[in-house]
Amino acid sequence: MSSRNLGRTLFGSPANAGNLLSLEEAHTLLNEWVPNERLRLHMRQVAANMKAWAIEKERADEQTARKWELAGLLHDADWEKYPDDHCRIIVEELEKRNIDPDVIRCIASHGPRVFGVEPEIKMDKMIYALDELSGLIHAYSLMRPEGYAGMEVKGVKKRLKEKTFAAGVNREDITDALSRIDTSLDDLIQFIIDNQSSVS
Ligand SMILES: [Fe+2]
Fold first, then answer.
1. Residue-wise pLDDT tens digits, 117-149
2. How far is the CA of 126 from the centre of ligand 1 (A)?
3. At what angle do helices 23-33 and 37-56 cross, to 10 degrees?
4. Domain extents for the chain?
5. Which tens digit of pLDDT belongs to each residue from 14-65?
6. Contact between residue 46 and residue 134 where contact means Cβ atoms under 8 Å apart
7. What angle do CA 29, 30, 36 make, to 5 degrees?
8. What is the CATH number of domain 14-196?
9. 132 CA to middle of ligand 1, Å?
């Protein structure tokens, strides 16, 4: 069992449904907890992808889209300061703040093999599917002189096959996550390119 295994599958309280941090509060938390701008950018990118997916693909209402966005924005908030307790710290912080249980469980399920929490609803499955791929695509943009401009799916897939490129990106997680949703790798890559390229 991983030391980061959360050892539980229930998060937050149903009584807190609908209780969300404002985006301003979430950014304040990130600025306090995450000195590394690149990691903050990663979370903003995952948040943009999550929000766009909720609206475009799930036809989510504003409140639901905000939940998706918030989970993306905070999912790695404790990674930099508490690497050994990553996920547990932010989950407990959001429970302390009485945040909506969907947001907390979504964050807890963004790495099932590490945190021991299976993604349940679509929101959980999408953060799992978007997280690593978003990181790889951003790493690819940084090595291209033109950044995101003209980036093609086939270029991303080539990097994905190169195990030494962005070696920290777990390819097995990407395959596992894709097996849980009905979207192809090509479509997901294109969606991420379209939705995170303008995030700054
Ligand atoms: Fe992440």
1. 999 999 999 999 999 999 999 999 999 999 999
2. 12
3. 150
4. 14-196
5. 999 999 999 999 999 999 999 999 999 999 999 999 999 999 999 999 999 9
6. yes
7. 150
8. 1.10.3210
9. 6
